[in-house]
Amino acid sequence: MPIKALESMIDEIVSIKLKDQRVFRGRLTRCDVYMNLTLSDAEELEGEETRAKYGSVLIRGNNILWIQIPE
After folding, report:
1. CATH of the domain at 53
2. Which of 4, 22, 34, 49 could tie 61 with a disulfide, CB 3.0–4.6 Å?
3. Model confidence pLDDT, tens digit, residues 35-54
4. Going by DSSP bridges, is the β-strand pair 64-68/13-18 parallel, antiparallel, or unpaired?
5. Into how many domains does the chain fold?
C-alpha cells in the first residue's frame, strides 16, 4: 500500500509534484490515510533551482500528482 511506503519515509527528504505543476522538496514529517503530507524545511523548486523556502507546509493529498522518495 502506498501509505505504508510513505510512513516508512518519515524523516526522509522527498519531492512532491502537484497537479498545478509546482514541485516541493522537504523532510516528510507526517502523512495520513488521505495522503495529506507535512514537510519541514520545505522549498519550492523551479527546475533544480530553489524558488522559495518555507518552514513547514501542509500538502493536501488530492493535489498530489507524484511523490519521489529516496532509493
Report:
1. 2.30.30.100
2. 34
3. 999 999 999 999 889 999 99
4. antiparallel
5. 1
Q: Across the chain, where does the E strand assignment appear? A: 13-18, 23-31, 37-46, 49-53, 56-59, 64-68
What are φ and ψ of residue 2, in 5° steps? -60, -35
For residue 22, what are the contacts with CB-CB under 8 A and spacing of at least 6? 44
**pLDDT digits over 5-30, tens only?**
889 999 999 999 999 999 999 999 99
4-12, long-range: CB < 8 A, 24+ apart: 5/69, 6/31, 6/35, 6/37, 6/67, 6/69, 7/31, 9/69, 9/70, 12/69, 12/70
Report residue 20 as a C-alpha cell.
Answer: 498545478
Report phi then psi at 23, rounded to 5: -120, 130
